[in-house]
């Protein structure tokens, strides 16, 4: 049997935090922290850097997690061989995801998933509507939320970092805000229902209310307006990482970000033995997004100017 502290460490990485790992394992955050420190002391290495804002793996933690991922996969395969279960998955899988996130960060990885599991009959819907998984008979949903919803099992697959950003031509024309209060004198961009912005900064929580310079019901329109120089937007890093890397957008007021309570979750109807296709897809996404999702790695160009 694998040391339970190794499984705990793997769960912390998968869930993106101590509290969420504790909820999944039905233990308190204090106990999660104590066992993590016990593992680090035993190994003589810091595995996770912990701050009030985020967790990040140390180089030793990255190596250990990579090894554990292969070990856990091998254990699962061995158990299937012993129990006589077929290693192949031959069942349907219906997934729903938000339109932009699904198009940008789910669809590009589907070919690799289907190469690994060719027997899965995949159906994917992209929609920004809130889908009732039970009524729609959906097996798995990707949700960007603080609370995935009642009656559902959930795994946090990434943190949804949101930053303030604007195009260089907007900043050249109207100046760069130096304090959070300066936003009141700028053109702000948000889709309907997205104000007030709830930010976390050096002194705690900040709430920024306002009126969008252009009214729209589309977050994608907000992103393109920001890129064109129409104003300042609060955008998810997964949505604007390419623009940041290319210099088409610059992060401003970097000490302030959207609340970290919002996360990216894979959710499915709670049941003792979820379909293997569901668990296989979540495991696959975890490989892609954990410990650091692609948009975090590519977000800011090395020579990007500081604002």
Q: Estimate what percentage of residues fall within beta strands.
A: 15-25%
The total count of helices amounts to 12
Identify the CATH architecture of the largest domain: 3-Layer(aba) Sandwich
Mean pLDDT: 87
- Termini Cα gap: 51 Å
> How many domains, in number, for the residues?
3
Radius of gyration (Å): 21 Å
**Shape by Cα distribution:** globular
What structural class do you assign from the helix and strand content?
alpha+beta
CATH class of the largest domain: Alpha Beta
CATH topology of the largest domain: D-Maltodextrin-Binding Protein, domain 2
Question: What is the count of β-strands?
Answer: 14
Unreliable spans are 300-307
Description:
This protein is α+β, with helices and mostly antiparallel strands and 307 residues long. The chain has three domains: 4-83, Winged helix-like DNA-binding domain superfamily/Winged helix DNA-binding domain (Arc Repressor Mutant, subunit A); 92-154 and 263-293, D-Maltodextrin-Binding Protein, domain 2, CATH 3.40.190; 162-258, D-Maltodextrin-Binding Protein, domain 2, CATH 3.40.190. The chain contains twelve helices and 14 strands. The strands form four sheets. A five-stranded mixed beta sheet has the order 4-3-5-14-6. Helix 1 packs across helix 3 (29-43) and helix 2 (18-25) crosses helix 3. The longest helix is centred in the first third of the chain and has 25 residues, at 59-83.
